[in-house]
Amino acid sequence: MTLLVVSATPEEAVHVPSTARLLITGVGKVPAAASVAAFLAADPGITEVVNIGSAGALHDHLEGLHVVGSVLNHDLSADALRAFGYDPQEWLRVGESPIRLATGDLFVSDPLVRARLAELADLVDMEGYAVAWAARRAGVPATLVKHVSDQADAGAMSWPELVDLSARALGEWLTAYLDGAGRQVTP
Q: Which among 133, 129, 167 is positioned nearest to 148, based on CA atoms?
């Protein structure tokens, strides 16, 4: 088995084990989808994708690390596309967890946006859906693991000072995941 670890930024991936294959995509859905799709097309030996990253909590009680069960493309006009006869596939199931992640190109720090998204999801990020979508199109399973860095409010603007806490937790989880699953990863 060959696992690909995907992160949007180098800051979120600084504690990824050095034995892991790591792809840094850049921030946002388009860079994430394009990077993952290109990498998987170039290396058909990848059998699993694990997307790690920080996320904003949409509910005050959420903190720490979460494995995502479903992910929403939140800034898509899904109802309009359905009305035109297209299936927008705005929700993707990626695991058994009850945790719902909303992904969009909007950096959420506005309380009104947070409240609207909280009706649909638990966490918010900017790449998870795109990574899951690209992996699914390539026929490769994806696991999304997110660490709460902020409350998706004005405090989110302190992300540069907070991201290392998320990076450490994600690196620890990834090390345990790799060791516990007995997986061989190759650089």
A: 167
Q: Report yes or no: 146 and 71 within 8 Å, Cβ to Cβ.
A: no
User: Does residue 86 fall inside a structural domain?
Assistant: yes
Q: Cα-flanking dihedrals φ and ψ of residue 127, to 5°? A: -135, -20
Q: Residue 182 falls within a domain, yes or no?
A: no
Q: How many folded domains does the chain comprise?
A: 1
Domain of 154, CATH number, reads: 3.40.50.1580
What pTM does this model have?
Answer: 0.91
For residue 166, what are its two tokens? 């998320």
Does residue 21 contact residue 172 with C-beta atoms inside 8 Å? no
- Could you read off the pLDDT of 115-162 as tens digits, one per residue? 999 999 999 999 999 999 999 999 999 999 999 988 777 776 777 778
Expressed as residue numbers, the domain containing 63 is 3-177
In a domain, 185, yes or no: no
The answer to whether 120 touches 102, Cβ cutoff 8 Å, is yes
Cα–Cα distance between 135 and 115 in angstroms, integer? 30
